[in-house]
Structure formats: structure tokens, C-alpha cells
Amino acid sequence: MNSFASGPKKSYYGKGDVIAYRLRRDGTQAANENPVFGANVKILVYGDAFWPTYTTGDNTGLVATDSMKNFIQRETMNFTGSDPESYCQFLAAKFLATYPQASGAQLSASEIPYSALQSGAAYVPGGQDRAEARVELIRQGADIVTAEVRSGIIGFRLLRLNGSAFKGFVRDEYTTLPDITNRPLHMSLDLDWTYTSPDAAFTGGSVTARVRQIVHDVFAGFASGSIQQILYLMGEKMLAEIHVIREIHLEGNNRTWDTIAEQGDSIGVYTDARPPYGCLGLTLSR
Question: What predicted TM-score, i.e. pTM, was given to this entire model?
Fold first, then answer.
């Protein structure tokens, strides 16, 4: 179910899974900018002007969702940035300027990353983790104001060969798991965060890059007693080092592989874990 930072809506509608790629084919781009910008976009809009469609089938003020798809894809040509926050802000502002009957618009975008090969003209799909953002703009009188800017990274897959323990937990009639002192840990991680002010969100992707680096550094940097401890140290470090983050939410899933055979702690053969998985969440705020 969709939700809005500005509050519950009696109705909303829009278009999802809108794909757009902007390619700077001549190789010209700003420093640290990828010539390949790809995104999967969802737009949701609301307002009293759209209510007659629900009650009487009157579509007089309705913007067709197919038109929304065309709007997103064509306006991507006019977007000059490279981060999902600025992209969502650009599209939401342009939509409200184009369609005054809309009271508000929420734009969400998840990057579709590509990485360059040596030549600079050839690319391959990027890693599994993807930056994303969500921006909601609303009308207040004659003004358009920001109701929400939220950023995130989804789809981390993290593997540690050793240095992960899980022991000392409650033991009762339902316990079958042994104490584990040195396991190969395989986990997934999604996280998102809000900012101390809306303007602080638009950094050209530098906050997202730093969050990604902290995830990697913390996961690789210490021997853990639980996934919960990993999440806490990640979130604590992000708040300490990235002062524009107001609140961060992390959710990790324990996807540790099932053991086929091991020779002590030196070598082992494993397979994908069974479907049940541990889900662990944490929210830290200033």
C-alpha cells in the first residue's frame, strides 16, 4: 500500500514501472557523472479534481496514466542531474506546473545502474544495490512546497567468510539452533533515511555514496556477535559522519547459506538457504 507524508488521501492514482534511460552518447558529462542515467519511476497524484472519475466516471480533469508515462520519459531529456533525489524533484515540480488540477504529486525513482568498461563507450549492468529516492510536493495556496524527501539504497548482498558469531540466545523446548562462534555470514540489507531539511537532500548523490561506503566498511571491519550489532554500528556511524541525515532505518535479512560440508573453519561447501529467513530492523534518529 502507498502512503504519503502529507497525510492520508481519499484517492490517488498514477503510473509505476516507467523506465527511462538518458544516454550522453558523445561522452560529455560533469566530473564523477555517469553518461548512462537509468531509472524505474512511479508517479502518484491526488486532488479533488480527480474525484468525479471515481463517483460518476467523469474524466474531464483526469490526466491519463499513459500520459504520465509519456511525461516522465520525455521530460527525462530535460533533466540535467544524475541523482534520484533531483530527478524526482524535477519531475514532481514540472508535473504540478503542467497540471494545476493536481493538489500534490509523489515521485519515486530507483536507479538502473551501469558501469563503464575500459573504453568508456561500453557499459555493463551495475551491482545489485540501487539508490532510490521519493519526493512529495504539495500545493499550499499559490506556492509549491516539499512535504517529503526520502533517500535509500536497496538490494545490498553482503558475504563475510568468517568473523560472525551468534550464541548465548534463549534456549527452550523450541530451540534447535546451536551456538555458532564463526560462521560464513550471508545477508541482505535495505536502508532509507530522511534529512534535517529538504534542501540538504540535494547533494548530487554524495550522501548516498558515503552511506554505501559506510555499509561496506562496517561489514568488513569487525567481528560481530549478531546482525543486530552490525545494523547498529552502521546506523551509528552514518549519524555521526553524515550530519544532514535526521533519521535512518535499516532492515537486514539473514540469508546465511545452509552447510553441505565443512573442514573446520578453513573450507566449506554451502547452498542457498531455505525459504524462512530472519528479518531484523532498526531505526536511529538524532
Answer: 0.93
